[in-house]
Amino acid sequence: MTSKLLSQGAIVRYEKEPPRYIHQETLQDLAQQFTERLGQYHKDFPMEEWTPRDSFREVLSIQSNKLYTLLLQRMSKDNAIVVEQDRVRLFNHKVRLHASQAELEKSLRALYKEAHLTPPRARELPEMLQSDTEDITSLLSLLVERGQLVRVVEDLYFDMEILQGLKQEVEAFLLEKKEMSPQDFKQMTGASRKFTIPVAEYLDKQHFTIRSGNVRKLHPKRLKQIEEG
């Protein structure tokens, strides 16, 4: 009976050992519920482009990792959703900014570009830009989601391209010198300790560098990536 239902496409196996199955209609019902809940999330949080991948697993009562993965794969294949690493959105969802929000976004991006490695704290932005704190917070999150800004710590953000450029400089320096002192890093960035310390700690957390005493070296994981090309 099971083999016949599988061949007819009436059921789908999502676990091999022990074998577990789900009826196509049940899978379709889960997909519908997922779509409705994700759509409501987008409606409730219009400034957020994505939601965490596992947001609706518990509310849909899906205990199996493989079943949840199967559901997302099917929905992605049907162009109902877009899954990217650990986040998900409806296929046709896109954050649409009002004219004033679009202008504020433009100002924020320009500000962080010009600030280079000495950007203002997020709490200083409302007064600097004469804008609402909530709007600025939402736009900062959106720019982080889009990979245009990086949140290093608390309310300290950097332009992604500028931070990537710094990482390239740090890597070139460490490949040649093997280690970097705080003074070396300060000279490289031209920034004070209130910027260099959080950035250095961020690079450590990213497993790009590693602290050894009072100096930093390339992290073994980064060295391995370089060796493997």
Unreliable spans are: none
In the CATH hierarchy, what is the class of the largest domain? Mainly Alpha
**Fraction of residues in H or I helices:** 40-55%
Order of helices and strands: HEEHEHEEHHHEEHHHEEH
What fraction of residues sit in β-strands? 15-25%
Radius of gyration: 23 Å
What separation lies between the terminal Cα atoms?
51 Å
Q: Could you give a short account of the major beta sheet?
A: 3 strands, antiparallel
The tally of structural domains comes to 2
Strand order of the largest sheet: 3-5-4
The gross shape turns out to be flat
Arithmetic mean of pLDDT? 94
How many strand segments? 9
Do you know the CATH architecture of the largest domain?
A: Orthogonal Bundle
Short account of what is shown:
With 229 residues, the protein is α+β, with helices and mostly antiparallel strands. Helix content is 54%, strand content 16%.
Describe the structure.
The protein has 229 residues and is of the alpha+beta class. The protein folds into two domains: 2-90, Arc Repressor Mutant, subunit A, CATH 1.10.10; 97-229, Orthogonal Bundle (Arc Repressor Mutant, subunit A), CATH 1.10.10. It is built from ten helices and nine strands. Helix 4 crosses helix 6.
